[in-house]
Amino acid sequence: MDRQGVDNRLFRLARKEGILDDPEIRKLILASGLSSTNHLRKSAGKAVFWKSLQHRQYPFDRPSHSGNVRLGVTFRNYPLYLSQDDLTKHFLTVGQSGSGKTTLFYSLMDEIEKPFWAFDLKQDYRHVDDVLVLPWTELRFNPLKPPEGVSPGRWAQVFSEVFSHATSLLSGSKNHLLKKIIEVYRLYNLFNRVSGPYPSFHELELLVKSEGINYVRKQADYRDTLLNRLEAMNLVAGTVFECSQGYSIQKLLQEDVVFEFDGLIRDVQNFLMEILFAYVYEYRLAQNHRNQGLNHVFFLDEGKRVFSVYKERQDASGIPEIDELTAKMREFGEGLVVADQEASKLTDSIKANTYTKALLPTAGRKEFQAMTEAMNLSERQAEFAEELDTGEAVVQVGSDSPVPVRLRNYQVEKTVSDRELEKEQRSRWEGLSYEQRKTTKRFNDRIAPGRTEEVPEKEIPEDPTEIKLSSEAERLLEDVVENPFRPLTERYQQFSSSYKGNKAKNQLVDQGVVVERKVKNGENRKLLQLTEKGRDYVEDQLDLEPKHRGRGGIVHRYWQHFIRDAFEEAGWDAFLEKFDADVYVNMGNNELAVEVAMGDNPREIKHVEKHLEKGFTVWIACRNKEIQEGLKQRIEERGLDPDRVVFRLFQDFD
Length: 654
What we know:
With about 650 residues, the chain is an alpha/beta fold. Helices cover about 40% and strands about 15% of the residues.
């Protein structure tokens, strides 16, 4: 603003109050400076003063953005919209647990008209309507197969960058990985013709293992570090990579898909998320899907898992590939919606490369300041944001002024257990095709002379009567029915060796009769849970009754029994699912209903309300502190009596 002819007193006041950009204010300041009468100066001064008072109470302007994706209404009851194409420039939201991030994701999923993929680490999105839910146990994906139209040489470089970032490999081990990928591609003759078969992670591990190295040299350290990562990944998620070609990415991009990675170790989760990002980007680039508007959206909660500021600052590992992709993918119509609790732990790249930002109630001064700085909020606006409540946010779209918004309250009431999920999704899973692992003669000659090119893998038959199990596998299956909570290591004791026990377990998993689940109870124990197919086999072929007491999946039922046993050991009468409680405890003068909470779900609060109506005291046993804090917030929002609701963690019952 040209200071010539300006009333300096009013100029300083307007700048201090953050209203200098208001066109009306600028006219008043200029009019006051040019006026020759005191009356006009006083009138202009009063107008600026009153405007500054109003702005101090509500330091935001009316939203001017338009579109067809409704986020909510401002505190002055104006609707706030995004356009579909705004999402190609990415969306970042930060808020504490229970502040409304998941609800915001639900709302956006419902509003956008394009397919989306959600990376789900806590089973938050399996109950969204009309989505394909892929637990990692059902996923088949070969990240060593280049995307359609991408050369093996280019993909080898992208893959090594992504794998190294996700598993914290530094440059020496990363370069060693690149050499091994190129070597395995040559053994599969991919540089002469880009067609199947393709090597899987398992073949890459075999190649690295077969490497002869002088252990005095530094090269040995690179090899061992890389082999450690590959072995861990195949050990934990080997079934995901058991294919030459996985599910068609092109087809999955036409559907709403929830990838459930709960139960995998952090490195594997990070790698799968990052490599899928990179895979889609390289596919879009090769197919020249430029400038078509919004094509597809990624949803990612716990954004720091992928966009970690600590990895970004590791000079030895270079600029992460995922940071580069964030800026590039918008040109190809790939939108990215990222949420997290801790803005200070997110990369500078994700904060700089997101067009829309939403600040929800945030715990911790450091996290709050990191977000207000990223949004360039004024001092008054930041003070206002400190008073936000659950479901409220300060939203900034592009270079527009930020506005406070009451977000759309989109609730998903439906709940889905593991068994219900399998029943609902099984036909869709079976409709997805993939090609089994194969090797080539050159690979076999290099690694295992005399080995056949086919890697045997039994298909899961449709009819339970067609399932072929060894006597050892049937013996293990009977033990699963009779002792559902026995840890896997104890089950192996009935065999002559752990090797035979593990072989029987792998047969049950490969045939789709059981799935593995982990329970953290002091130590990580593995449980085996019957699938629908397994229940049918047990009834028809083994003549056993697989009925069980307790709700939900095996992990939920494990904690029900564990908590009941803990109360009984303390001398109380405890029962499973009596009076519709997970665990009912009669304590003489008091009746206690215990709810086992595996997630921060609205249904838990409905159960609590029913128990309180019956006059019970309620304990909510939570899997972790994050779930506990989320449910506490829900209890407060419903206005329930906090003196009759007690929160406990699973570990408290140990």
